[in-house]
Amino acid sequence: MLWLGVGLFVLYPLAMLLLRAFLAEGQLSQGPLFAMLGERIHRQSLLNSLILATLVGGIGTALGFVFALAATRCELSAPARGALDALAFLPLISPPFTTSIAIIFSFGPRGLITHDLLGLTGTSAYGLPTTLLSEVLTYFPLAYLTLKPVLAGIDPNLEDMAASLRAGGWRIFRTVTLPLCIPGFANAFLLLFAASLADFATPLILAGSNFPVLPTQAYLQITGLFDFKGGAVLSFVLLVPAMVVYLLQRWWVARGHYVTVTGKVGPRALSRPLPTAARIPLLAVCSALAVVIAYFYALLFYASVVKAFGADHSFTLAHYRVIFTEGLKAIRDTLIIAGIGMPLGGLFGVVVGYLVTRKRFPGRHALEMTVMLNYALPGTIVGIGYLIAFNDPPIVLTGTAAIIVACYVFRYAPTGVRATIAQLQQIDPSLEEASTGMGAGSFETFRRVTLPLVLPAFFAGLGVMFVRSLTAISATIFLISIGWTLITVRILENMTELALGPAAAFSVLVVAMVFAVTGLIALLLRRLRAPGTMALAGSMGG
Amino acid sequence: MTTQPAPAGIRVEAVSKQFAHRVKGQVYAVDRVDLDVAPGELLTLLGPSGCGKTTTLRMIAGFEQPDSGRILIGERDVTRALASQRDIGMVFQSYALFPHLSVFENVAYGLRVQRRPETAIVDAVREVLALVGLGGYERQMPHQLSGGEQQRVALARAIVFRPRVLLFDEPLSNLDAKLRVQMRGEIQRLQKRLGITAIYVTHDQEEAMAISDRIAVMNKGKLVQLGTADALYRRPEDEFVAQFIGRVNLVPVRVLAASGEEVEIELWGRRLRIAGASGAIVPGPARLVLRPEMARLGPDGPFAAKIVERTYLGEKSEYRIEIGDLVLQVAGYDGDGPGHAPGSTVRLALPERGLHFLP
User: In which band, very low, low, confident or very high, does the pLDDT at A491 lie, cut at 50, 70 and 90?
Assistant: First the structure.
């Protein structure tokens, strides 16, 4: 049953995609691959994608580390640390074009900064620098969320030990703290690299024609030229580095390089704070970044309530009227799809997570790997795979809501799977044995003991499903139809029509809805959280 | 509280269990182990880590399946029965308290599974919590309790539904030394008072000797010797038991002649007659099991020895002494005296009856 679903919605589309990419006149051949790579623009976009991903990975990891240091080593007050977390959380739950819109407003030909402030004319907001800026701002929180527990998990005794051997603050940082973070750096870099490689929305808006990247090229190949084979081939070109990164990361995690948190109770020594001289630049960078992010979001909101940003700054609610009339269908469709996908994805996550950790059956690891596949692959590949697989018999799903729901469930439920696995790995199997020892059958044990303990993972899974259903675009842009459309796609359409007001209004609406729902789930989680179980906020972002 | 059912004996008959080992291939975790636990008895499985004691316990509990052999609780063959159908109470090393349930609900768990009426549950939980000294803790959550209190909740949870058998898997290993001594006394008193047959797993020989009616010593998956603490200490059947229970010197001797329980031995060039000897008493080479407190150091005795080292422990001193080319551990109860200084020469005397020999 599970395998059927996973086979149909994970393996089958991928197989169809590869088949399409390598089948020329009924024969397997590398011909199409070489033909596509023969074109300069495609070679250029592969190179551009790799350059962009490397830069985003490097800069994002550095910024994430600065944030993590500020959060763990600067003796900040609890509200200040909360603000850091919120700030880092914001880009993760925003719709894909938020920073892009704000960047166009700021750096475009009539941009707030370039035109009004600096008096420049004829500037362009498109190209590598703005794409890089936008992606770094969007993805650095991933590095922050990866590095913070690593920094916090370093045993303070190690640093105290170094201090007792008369090492100075900077020396301790260089010889103890930094080396212990290296696995974290590698992991964060790979995460950001993969995210940037897969990012479709940002370069679509900001990269422009001078800086083509693979996902957008694949998209244009299909929607512009109706060349499915070309799209499939470009997807394969994207698939190779994505798989390499995915496997590297799995290998890295499997080697157990993490600083593990032992279950030791009792008073814990405090981490050594950094010297003031180091704190000031750190906090300055954080504040600057915070100002930029806050400025972008304020700009977005402002643009949604003025007539025409850059030309007529008088107050209006017209844009909201537009999205609740013309745009109502997209909002309704999105919420219906999210509503169906949430329980399905949440349940899928808990059931698969439970099966792979607690039950022994053949193909257990294969099942886990396969389930994670759609999550790890760039959305463009998944979308094109679904498009190719479900457009023709035997299974035709194009144009239905089912194809979008299936795409979301199999692409984002793996977060719930991971959360469940993490949760279960912390639950001593002897808890379940204690229950069966007292006469409870395996179903009663699952209901009374296991289920209450994995409930936080279930709700975290629901939260991720909801957030992604409202903000994802890279895969589903290939799957929308006249019958079913999505808010994110409407934002894109608005942007291409240069109707930036409604686009901003849509974005504000999505941020508000996501905030409301994640807030509700966080509240539930806090009430549910059994003592000793780990906070799951981190898994919300992935 | 409900009335206690008649205690049930436990029989383990030739039980074996193999595990796949990464380096060694298939290895026996438990190798043809036989046990016969009398109704109401507390039997300890004692041995170093990896000796198979926990696996044996988990097979009795029903968490592992034996490859061969039979397990009986009372007269019932439970070898293939599920853990939930064995009527056991178990205390885990990690306590395994349900973190999402209060103390009351943790203890009530087994009663709720049995669908007892609510009033009976409340009464039974109250009574058992009072019994373990936790009256008034009903609403606390497990993480609010100290280690010792968590241990008591685990104990209360295991006995509240009056199982026929109690199983303990190293229940005290997470407590500090003082609390360990106190809790083992409480466990023993409770077990005797309730009269529930119990099997107790530990690697701590002192704990085993303090708590058990009988001890089964295990090593490398095999049952090595089963007996009272006294029998294991005085008459170990092999070198492993002699070394594992208490401290020991194994002194090479030669048995010259034996008639009944009286032997003549040659030791350090002298001939000694020993009455009431046990163990390997056939003419030929043998090893004398000499516990540190059996030898006496003093002004007289048949053997001359040199003090190598003295460790003062308050009630006694521990000496390392050199005699011939052997170094022995000997306990000295010096009373008010100054004891023996390292480098000095003393005389050593041995008891003349009740010595034990290994081949």
Answer: confident
Q: Which residues contact A210 (CB under 8 A, 6 or more apart)?
A: A126, A127
Look at residue A396 and tell me whether its pLDDT is greater than 50: yes
Band of pLDDT at residue A116, cut at 50, 70 and 90: low
Q: Which residue has the tokens 């500037």?
A: A123
Residue that the structure tokens 């009795």 belong to: B60
10-residue block means of pLDDT along chain B (359 residues)? 70 91 81 93 93 92 90 91 86 85 90 89 93 90 88 92 91 87 91 92 93 94 93 92 91 87 86 86 89 87 89 87 89 77 88 87
Let me know: does B97 contact B154? Beta carbons within 8 Å: yes
Compare CB distances from B113 to A428, A439, A533 and report the shortest one's residue. A439
Please provide residue B201's backbone torsions phi and psi, each rounded to the nearest 5 degrees: -105, 130
* pTM for the whole structure: 0.73
Name the one residue in this structure whose structure tokens are 């104990």.
Answer: B155
User: CA Rg, chain A, in Å?
Assistant: 24
Q: Which residues pair with B289 in a beta bridge?
A: B250, B356
Interchain proximity B94–A430, CB inside 8 Å: yes
A534 contacts chain B (CB < 8 A)? no
* Token pair of A157 as six digits: 């005794």
Note the pLDDT of residue A327. Answer: 78
What is the phi/psi pair of residue B330, to 5°?
-135, 135
User: B100 vs A532: CB contact, 8 Å cut-off?
Assistant: no
Residue-range domains of chain A with CATH: 1-13+316-542 (1.10.3720.10), 39-260+279-302 (1.10.3720.10)
Cα separation of A477 and A481, whole Å? Answer: 9
Q: Does A339 touch chain B (CB under 8 A)?
A: no
The 10 Å Cβ neighbour count of residue B267 is 19
